[in-house]
Structures are given as C-alpha cells and as structure tokens.
Design the sequence.
C-alpha cells in the first residue's frame, strides 16, 4: 500500500489495494456503504443499486467501480440516502415482507438496511404478489415471498456448489427466481443444507427448516448494533 | 330459541344500536328492538368483523405459527403464542418439557394474566365501578379515575407494567416475543432478571390483594344490585389440574352446571371435539359453541374468571384461595351468577397470578438452562389449549409431511362466552331498560355487562378506552330519529 493508493470517501481518506472495488476498500477500512447484492466471496453483481455513490460527481455502483487514486466519492449524503430509501421501499412493496412474523427478523439485511436508512413507511402501494412457498425439501424451506432477486443463491449454487439449483426466469417486473428441476420443486433437486447457496440469502427466502426462532429475537445479528456500525466493529476486531 | 334473541315482528319495532361497544377490545355492536311503549323485544350482541385468521396460517411452516398467531390479539398475544406452541411441541415430536422450560412458560403466562387483568380492571372497568354506570360520560374513563382515585390508578398502571416486565424477560420482548419454541424455550432467565422481578413481587401481591378487597367493599355497598345485575344461570368451563385445582397453563377440561355439579371432568383437551360443538348464526360472525351432550339450547356455558374460580375445587395459592371462599360464600353453596362477579373473580385471579409468579421466582429451577425437550416422533395433528385471561383458548392444527399447516381451527375465549354475553345483556335489558326511556346511562348498563367479560371482539384493534360510540335511534320505517355520538370526530 502506498501513499498514492488512496481515495476520499465523504472527505475521509480510504487506502486500498489495487483491484479492490470502492465498496470492498471502504468496508475493509471500516467505513460502511449500504449494499444488498454484494457478498465478499462472490463477483460483484451490481443489481440492487443500494451501493450507488457519486464518484467525481457521477453516479455509480460502489461494488463494481474499481478504487482509483484520487477519486472523490460521496456516499452518506441526504440525496444518496434518499434514493436508497426509495429503492428499499420499492423492494418492500414488490414482495411480501412481513417482518413481525418472519423468522429472519434481526438477521435480515433488507430489514437492517431499512432501519438504518430510516425507512419509516413503505410509501408505495403493496403489490401483494401471490407466491407459493416450497416446502418439498426435507431440510430447507423456500419462501420467495421475500426474495429480492440479488441472485446470490444463483451464483453460489452455480459457482461454488456446482449444481445450478437456482436460476432467474422471466423479464422485467415478472422476473423471479426458479428452481431448476422438472417439477420446479426443491425436493426434486440434489440441493443440500450444507450447500453454500443454503446460507447466502440476505433475506428470509432460503431457510433452514424447524429452527426459525431458536435464537431469540433481540439477540440477533442486527438487533444490537445497526448494520452500518458493524463494518467498523469488524474492522476494529481484526486490527 | 332464547328469550329476546329474535323478535316476532321486527319490522314494527324501533331499533337502537350501540355501535361499537366501547372499552372492549375490537369492534362489536349491540342492537335493541323496542316497541312504542319502550318494551324490549330483541337484544343481540353482533360481531361485525371477520378476519379469517385461519387462512393466514394455512400453508405456513409450523414453527412460524406460535409467532404469527400473536397478531390475533393486541392484548393477550402470549396466550396465543403458548396455545400454538403447545400444539407444535407435539407436531414437532417433542416429549415432556424439562422443568425449567415449563416453568419459564408458566412464568410468561401468569405474567400475561396479571398484565391483562390489570389492564382490564383498572383501565376498562374501574371507570364504571368507581365513578358510576351513569356518571358523566366524558369523565367515565381512566383519566376520570386518575383524578378521583389517584392511588388506585397508579397501582393499576404499575401492576400492568410489572406483568409486561415478566413477559419481556421470558419472551424476549414486551410484545410479540418469541420465547417459546416447539420443544421448549429459546431463552433462559438471567439471575439479574430474576432478581429484578423478585424485588417488586411482594408489592404486587399486596396491591392485588387490596384490589380484591376494594371490589368486595364495593359489593357491600349495594349487595342486591351486585348480586343480580346481569344475573342468569349457566354452565361453566375451565381447565383444572389432576387435583382439581385452578391451572392457567395446562390441565383437563372441566364443565359444571349452574348448581356446580360436574357435567364432564378431566377431559383430555385433545378430544375437545367430542365434548364441544360450534354453531353458526346468521346475525353474527362469532360462532356459538356448546356442550355437545346438552345441545345448543342448554349446552352453552361461560368461561373466564368467574367460570374458572368456581369450576375448580381450589386455587393453589393461599391468599387467592381465601378470597375465592369469601366470594363463593355469597352463593350459599351454589355458584354466584351475577355478571359483575366477573370483576371480583378476575381480581382474585390477578392475586393468584402474582402469588404464582412469586413462587416461580423463588424456585431454583427457574434459573436452569436445560430448555429443550427430547425429540421423538413427528405428529400430523395436535391441539393446544390454555386458559387465556379471558377464558379457555383452543388451537387445533394439522401439518403435512412437508411441515406446512394444512388445517387450523381456533376457538378463542370470547367465542366461548358468546351466548353468555348475549344472556347477560338480555338480563340487563329486561331489568334495567324494559319500559323506560333509553338514556346514555342506561345504554351504558348494557356495555357494563359486556365489559365484565372483557371480550376481545376483534383481535387487532385496540383503542383502549377511546373507542367511538354511535347510537342511532331508527323508527319502524328505518328513518333516523336521533343520533348520539361520542369520540367520533366530525360527522361526515
Ligand atoms: S432467494 Fe435470497 S439469495 Fe436467492 S435471489 Fe432471492 S433474495 Fe437473493
Ligand atoms: S451492492 Fe452494489 S449494486 Fe448491490
């Protein structure tokens, strides 16, 4: 790392390693930029747009833009957070997200972001889509009512598990995640609870069966500290 | 056919509606049909809202249900949580709970009973009892009580708060916690939490006892009135343990008749359908359950405090049992049947709940960490029953081999009391309204009778004490004669 490998994020210097994205560099430095479809173990996807920042005055996804020396990056601004709030509101109304009854509550990235960015109401009219849940697999429950189409499961199953159990189907507002099996049911695939794809879902769409509330609400990942505080906490731990 | 349930010539009669009934949970309305001489021909309590919660449950995974059913009720979510989880213990194949887990669930539940009974008495009922049924309506609320009886109002607030703290420490949250999971509990009680609760419990017991004495003293001021207001004979049902003692968490079903003689006893509640039957009527969304063997005319019963206190052989805590004997002494060997005895019985239960909480906190098991039962064979169907603050609550589920709920039947406490509440308001209408010009104060007598049951008429709404009331006086042709409104905001 040398003195030149540094950019500015909201006025703070962020040092980076060559090849890192703005998002990766910021998180490694303990500075949080909101993100949903990003996962440290996977190639950037750039689909959720939560990480949108302004780089030298132009909008771009922090998870796909490489860090470069001298960049002026703005992230935590009223304008950008306002846009993020709108994106979250659209995600909330587009699926069926009823946090009070959801077993992912407290471990859900979507919920944690909504709290953090102070999304107080869904604002838009709910779509209330009708989506059946798939309980055919003995160990894993699929509830696509909560899917936000980050495609992490698609990527994990294809790239890590080598199974391609999940795929994206349809276009535009009709696009959705499907299961690659003749019946379309998870029970008819070789999916296993130990698959990477079983543990990457940021929301409550892919769930381990029968253990939903074993960890009390109130003691979960995002219950204690907001999601934005966790990047800096992790960084402090590692230091 | 019940007297005053259906008038012979309804078209010729004047109709008065109390819509909605206030200071109860949810939305219900009462209609009265009167003739020109103000004689009453028909009185009905209608439930005008139907939420069909069962359809939200069907198709969902079973382990989620104990959490989601809490949305049924704004004021006793813990009861639904526990009734559901008792069923799901069985569905998931768990055997008997370790002592700590069962005691923590009991602690949570008795905390709920304490909290709910305190809210009901102090916030919803005491304005009528302490200020008068026909006192100035704008002051007939908890604010009026706080002005005239500040000490009592304060105790009510603190009792309620204490109950909430018990729930918070056992369920993880003050409302809609997740403490109970199929097979046990997910959270142990920390020493600090136990100590915090233990510190205040003796004070709670003292206040609870004082509240029982207050109602007893109130009764002595007008014994005739209190004995007979909304009086009618009925059977009573509740859970009792194997000794015949009161038990809010678990037991067998017992029903006794109006003379206190057993109809059935120690019935395994998983077979509730063999002793109970539900009947639908066209004019209300709420079903009318009754004891199968006696039929709809004779088989209806009441549940809740007055039923439980009198159906059991004793209350297994000393102070409450003594108060039980005092109250039942007024019946001279027979159960008391006046509707206002519900308040007295409810406060006896509040006292009992506080005594049980103290005993549980003193029990070393309560700090244990063995929270999960051993797992055995899965079941496809199960029933969970509990004594909720308002009475016996049934949750019945079937779950398929993929873990999804395929069938759900709930009989909530208030449904069990449906016919009894109708009988109570008919009794009040006969003695207090029949032949008289109807005033707001008299209409409130009807509401007082309903409120005594602490009904939870719908399960999501809870506008404590501020519910709007609109009374329409309509002539035989359906024309509006006059309209009385309160807390309704501007007329649209
Ligand atoms: S199921 Fe989960 S991981 Fe897969 S696309 Fe939907 S939200 Fe992403
Ligand atoms: S995290 Fe960058 S677009 Fe989703």
Sequence:
């Amino acid at each position: 790392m040398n003195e030149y490998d540094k950019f500015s994020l909201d006025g703070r210097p962020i040092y980076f390693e060559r090849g890192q994205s703005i998002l990766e560099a910021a998180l490694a430095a303990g500075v949080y930029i909101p993100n949903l479809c990003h996962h440290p173990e996977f190639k950037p996807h750039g689909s959720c747009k939560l990480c949108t920042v302004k780089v030298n005055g132009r909008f771009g996804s922090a998870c796909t833009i490489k860090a470069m020396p001298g960049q002026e990056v703005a992230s935590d601004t009223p304008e950008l957070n306002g846009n993020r709030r709108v994106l979250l509101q659209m995600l909330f109304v587009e699926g069926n997200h009823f946090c009070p009854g959801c077993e992912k509550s407290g471990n859900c990235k979507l919920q944690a972001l909504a709290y953090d960015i102070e999304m107080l109401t869904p604002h838009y009219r709910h779509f209330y889509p009708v989506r059946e849940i798939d309980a055919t697999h003995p160990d894993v429950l699929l509830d696509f009512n909560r899917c936000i189409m980050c495609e992490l499961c698609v990527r994990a199953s294809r790239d890590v598990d080598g199974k391609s159990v999940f795929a994206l189907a349809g276009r535009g507002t009709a696009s959705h995640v499907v299961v690659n099996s003749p019946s379309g049911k998870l029970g008819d695939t070789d999916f296993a609870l130990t698959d990477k794809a079983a543990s990457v879902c940021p929301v409550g769409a892919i769930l381990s069966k029968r253990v939903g509330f074993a960890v009390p609400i109130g003691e979960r990942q995002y219950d204690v500290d907001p999601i934005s505080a966790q990047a800096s906490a992790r960084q402090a731990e590692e230091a | 056919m019940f007297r005053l349930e259906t008038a012979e010539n309804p078209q010729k009669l004047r109709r008065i509606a109390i819509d909605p009934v206030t200071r109860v949970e949810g939305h219900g309305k009462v209609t009265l049909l009167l003739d020109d001489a103000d004689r009453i021909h028909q009185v009905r309590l209608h439930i005008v809202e139907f939420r069909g919660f069962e359809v939200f449950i069907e198709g969902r995974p079973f382990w989620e249900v104990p959490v989601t059913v809490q949305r049924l009720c704004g004021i006793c979510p813990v009861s639904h949580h526990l009734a559901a989880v008792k069923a799901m213990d069985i569905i998931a194949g768990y055997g008997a709970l370790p002592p700590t887990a069962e005691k923590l669930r009991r602690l949570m539940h008795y905390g709920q009973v304490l909290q709910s009974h305190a809210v009901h008495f102090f916030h919803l009922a005491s304005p009528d009892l302490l200020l008068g049924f026909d006192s100035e309506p704008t002051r007939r609320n908890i604010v009026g009580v706080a002005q005239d009886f500040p000490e009592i109002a304060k105790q009510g607030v603190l009792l309620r708060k204490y109950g909430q703290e018990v729930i918070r420490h056992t369920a993880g949250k003050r409302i809609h916690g997740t403490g109970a999971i199929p097979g046990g509990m997910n959270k142990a009680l920390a020493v600090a939490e136990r100590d915090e609760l233990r510190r205040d419990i003796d004070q709670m017991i003292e206040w609870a006892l004082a509240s029982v004495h207050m109602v007893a003293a109130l009764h002595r001021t007008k014994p005739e009135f209190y004995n007979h207001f909304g009086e009618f004979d009925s059977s009573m049902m509740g859970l009792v343990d194997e000794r015949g003692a009161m038990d809010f968490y678990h037991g067998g079903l017992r029903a006794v008749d109006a003379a206190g003689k057993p109809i059935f006893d120690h019935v395994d509640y998983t077979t509730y359908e063999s002793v109970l039957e539900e009947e639908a009527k066209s004019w209300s969304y709420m079903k009318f359950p009754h004891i199968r063997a006696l039929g709809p005319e004779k088989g209806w019963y009441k549940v809740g405090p007055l039923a439980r206190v009198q159906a059991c052989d004793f209350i297994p805590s000393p102070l409450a049992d003594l108060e039980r004997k005092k109250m039942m002494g007024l019946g001279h060997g027979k159960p008391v049947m006046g509707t206002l005895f519900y308040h007295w019985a409810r406060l006896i239960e509040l006292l009992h709940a506080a005594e049980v909480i103290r005993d549980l906190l003193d029990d070393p098991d309560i700090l244990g960490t063995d929270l999960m039962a051993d797992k055995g064979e899965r079941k496809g169907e199960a029933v969970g029953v509990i004594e909720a603050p308002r009475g016996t609550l049934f949750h019945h589920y079937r779950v398929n081999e993929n873990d999804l709920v395929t069938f759900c039947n709930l009989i909530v406490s208030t449904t069990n009391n449906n016919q009894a509440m109708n009988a109570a308001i008919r009794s009040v209408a006969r003695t207090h309204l029949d032949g008289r010009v109807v005033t707001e104060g008299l209409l409130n007598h009807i509401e007082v009778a309903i409120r005594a049951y602490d009904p939870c008429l719908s399960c999501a709404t809870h506008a404590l004490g501020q519910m709007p009331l609109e009374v329409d006086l309509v002539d035989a042709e359906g024309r509006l004669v006059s309209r009385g409104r309160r807390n309704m905001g501007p007329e649209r």
User: Anything to note?
Assistant: The first strand of chain B starts at residue 14 and ends at 19.
